[in-house]
Automatic annotation (TrEMBL), chains A, B:
This is Aspartokinase. It is an enzyme of class 2 (transferase). It catalyses: L-aspartate + ATP = 4-phospho-L-aspartate + ADP. Keywords: Amino-acid biosynthesis, ATP-binding, Diaminopimelate biosynthesis, Kinase, Lysine biosynthesis, Nucleotide-binding, Repeat, Transferase. Catalyzes the phosphorylation of the beta-carboxyl group of aspartic acid with ATP to yield 4-phospho-L-aspartate, which is involved in the branched biosynthetic pathway leading to the biosynthesis of amino acids lysine, threonine, isoleucine and methionine. ATP binds at residues 13-16, 180-181, 191, 216-217. Pathway: Amino-acid biosynthesis; L-lysine biosynthesis via DAP pathway; (S)-tetrahydrodipicolinate from L-aspartate: step 1/4; Amino-acid biosynthesis; L-methionine biosynthesis via de novo pathway; L-homoserine from L-aspartate: step 1/3; Amino-acid biosynthesis; L-threonine biosynthesis; L-threonine from L-aspartate: step 1/5. One of its GO terms (cellular component) is cytosol. Substrate binds at residues 53, 80. GO terms for biological process: diaminopimelate biosynthetic process; homoserine biosynthetic process; lysine biosynthetic process via diaminopimelate.
Length: 427, 427
């Protein structure tokens, strides 16, 4: 083959909505073949078609209400095999060679934690061989094979993105393109803020904070993986040819003249728990968090204020997923005597709004502006938590949209054109 | 574990209709657990649920009209992974341990012929290990992994039966139970002959002839495999607890006092081609069959009668699948000059009726009775072909049912009770 340009290796990931129908599959195939025809080697990772995963979950539920995790993984991984085989067929129909591989065949080696396996190693020998033969390679996302038992595993939510980034790292790809139903990473959710701006570039650290604070475009684990292996991730729309957002580089690489703040993220998925009048002595807070951790409930924000005068007691507040709230309260209540608190308060009608930006470090006054903007809009702040490049607060869930809007405006994050919103998300 | 009885190893295979819904899956699980509780080790092979395979084929067709065979296998094999994982879940819900394995994990090593792979070897190390731990083992039927490319392969029609028999052979199982929607092997199709009798036992050779002549309960390849490895196959209904039919032993093992004839089989799937006025010299018939074989069309019956006086020409008639008829005629017509025949006649409105029985060898007069029975019913015989234990004739397709009925009656094959007919078949 004669190529004018140096051959690049491109990993592309397509979400479930991008491959939901035969027609969309053919469109995705066209884009893949186009990339190949530009002279690049192409590795593609597809999620399961549209609602396939939900349908399989529903089937399992009809059979039993406590399916073993190993079998759940065997069941769910079939969804990605189906979509990847179909995309391979569509590529063939366009005259290019394509071969689909399961996670196991692709050498995605994981821990044995079914449903939430972590990638330990990637041994892409078979993929490399296929690429060397000029074939387009497809890999079923979201799945791997456990190192010890050789059983089929799944990587949990957003797993296909992680598969794509892990393959890009192992194959030393030039870029990992994540095709999704939005045009890129925005300065806020375009469904809430009409002039939300698409970002051209964002550092790994900022993207991590955005993902941790509720931005759903990329999952936290995928960004962590990309950062560790320095894989440039290009988030873009599968419906247009527009350039999206590149996640790359550390905060230090971002030119100083660029906007000091990246965006506003929000999250409706959390609930708040307050443990009231806990003895303010070493070990008592640990007892609370051990109890919650034992139940495998993830804690996000934690706040402990100073002791109330003369009582020797303090209150601890934390947030956890709404879906785990009832269980968290139940577990703590069961250990009330042992832990020694007065009562448990819980609140699921909250929302979290966060401002993220690497420039925050060097620009004083951000916190003041943040609080003033919310106060002027009459939004009450329930709880504040910050990191070096982030400020997060809890507010009433009914006031969350307004909080996002006023912060976005106060920090002048808006662009010139209105953002385009498509429906549906992939896995 | 304390067991009163010697532990047996039982392989059970369930067809697609037996696992078509969550409710049926739970029922199948109950039967499996019951076998386990009797103290046996159990290996289960399930087909894909109900119409899953057709739905996947339909999806592929929507994407392209020429799907590559490798990807087709990747696509279709997901159906069996789904059903086997669900059955494993249902078994768990009943309190027994169960683990599902893909064909590749189960060590089903095949040729690389996608869509029609043959089993080369079975290396059931992981299954044996799981059995030794007291676990019920499930294996996705119809699939394996190619020895050379390590790609996923499928075994073609009836593949799950072959998987079950191959596992039974490799694991030295005491019996391979094939659960289906009929009560066993019958002396004729119960939908045509109301007093068709369920056979208690049938030899491998007789079963091979029955399968080759259109009996659809067991596929030819599965019986060949069972015979080669001497695996007793028990064909029975998944809807009842009744004993079915055991396929076992050679013709010589069948007691002499048993019925001399086994049953009447019929086949509507074939068409007839006659090559008229072919030179009756060495090599001309070979040219005809080479042309058909090159097109990968299977020939069943072949008949060449003596030359017509003085012409030096002869007619050759053969049968092939109806679905290949047009292609066969086209291929032969294209080579008419080269082969040197006068014309091609074809007829797809035919049916084949066969009488099978080991006793035929030692009982003269069977052919005479056979022809008399059809003549008395006014059924015209178009073509006759025999083996040591079989007589087959072609008749008009409109007269096929009657031919089956009168032969069944003439050889007194009927039982006392009417046969029960269920709907649907598995893969």
């Amino acid at each position: 083959m004669c190529k004018d340009l140096a051959v690049a290796l491109v990993v592309q990931k397509y979400g479930g909505s991008s491959v939901a129908t035969a027609e969309r599959i053919r469109r995705v195939a066209e884009r893949i073949v186009e990339t190949k025809k530009q002279g690049h080697d192409v590795v593609v990772v597809c999620s399961a078609m549209g609602d396939t995963t939900d349908e399989l979950l529903d089937l399992a539920e009809q059979v039993t209400d406590a399916p073993p995790a190993r079998e759940m993984d065997m069941l769910l991984t079939s969804g990605e095999r189906i979509s990847n085989a179909l995309v391979a067929m569509a590529i063939h129909a366009l005259g290019e060679e394509a071969r689909s591989f399961s996670g196991s065949q692709a050498g995605i080696i994981t821990t044995g934690a079914h449903g939430t396996a972590k990638i330990i190693d990637v041994t892409p020998g078979r993929l490399r061989e296929a690429l060397d033969e000029g074939t387009i390679v497809l890999v079923a996302g979201f799945q791997g094979v456990s190192q010890d038992s050789k059983d089929v595993t799944t990587l949990g939510r957003g797993g296909s993105d992680t598969t794509a980034v892990a393959l890009a790292a192992a194959l030393k790809a030039d870029v990992c393109e994540i095709y999704t139903d939005v045009d890129g990473i925005f300065s806020a959710d375009p469904r809430i803020v009409s002039d939300a701006q698409k970002l051209d570039q964002i550092s790994y650290e900022e993207m991590l904070e955005m993902a941790a604070c509720g931005s759903k475009v990329l999952m936290l684990r995928c960004v962590e993986y990309a950062r560790r292996y320095n894989v440039p991730v290009h988030v873009r729309s599968s419906y247009t040819d527009k350039i999206g957002t590149t996640v790359f580089g550390s905060m230090e690489d971002i030119p100083v003249e660029q906007a000091i703040l990246t965006g506003v993220a929000h999250d409706r998925s959390e609930a708040k728990v307050t443990v009231v009048a806990l003895p303010d002595e070493p070990g008592y807070a640990a007892k609370v968090f051990r109890a919650v951790a034992d139940a495998e409930i993830n804690i996000d924000m934690v706040l402990q204020n100073i002791s109330k005068v003369d009582t020797g007691k303090t209150d601890i507040t934390f947030t956890c997923p709404k879906t785990d709230l009832a269980r968290a309260v139940e577990i703590l209540t069961a250990r009330q005597d042992e832990i020694g608190f007065a009562e448990i308060l819980s609140d699921s009608e909250i929302g979290k709004v966060s401002l993220v930006g690497a420039g925050m470090k060097s620009h004083p006054g951000v916190t003041a502006t943040f609080c003033e903007a919310l106060a002027n809009a009459g939004v009450n702040i329930d709880l504040i938590s910050t990191s070096e490049i982030r400020i997060s607060v809890l507010v009433r869930d009914t006031e969350l949209d307004e909080a996002v809007q006023v912060l976005h405006k106060a920090f002048d994050l808006g662009g010139d054109e209105a953002a385009v919103v498509h429906g549906g998300t992939g896995r």
